[in-house]
Known about the structure:
Elements: H1 11-66, H2 70-118, H3 125-141, H4 152-167
Amino acid sequence: VSAAAGSAGSAGAQASVAAQLDGYLKSLVTYMRDSAKCVACLEEMVRNDAAEQDKINKEADVYRTIGGMASMTADLDRKAAQLTANMRANAENIAFLKSDMKGVVDSVAQLRTYLDDRCPTVTNDGLAKCMSALRMAASSVSRFDERFPVDNAMIGSLESTVSTLLDSAEPAKKVSTATW
């Protein structure tokens, strides 16, 4: 949101801030939804790799028990090691995405505080809706905790809030509220 918030007393400045905030909130919804999808996909890949690795390890144990199958066992051990590396890399990607999401969540509260300080009196209906949506979004995403699985209900609540408050006057720009 630009420096227009600093002079948010004028109608033109408030309209400018409203337009920017509208775009920010819609981008926030898209970012959180898409990041949650990426995290879920990576978590699924880790689960699948772990299951495959378990299967391979059991098969390698059978070959070790039989004996004389060193090349087959070595091949299975290489496959298991590759799956371990994949799981480690995906776990690092999950941690990065959740950390990034946490940073974005923290910035929502900071932006809310900044705008509340800069716009104590709101005369523009669009800005009033945006600030209302920002307050609700800040409340909604405050539950985000990077140590736990992404709360899809929180993402849905954020999406619904932004869609309802910002798009009631502009149905052509409606943010999808489809579940995923």
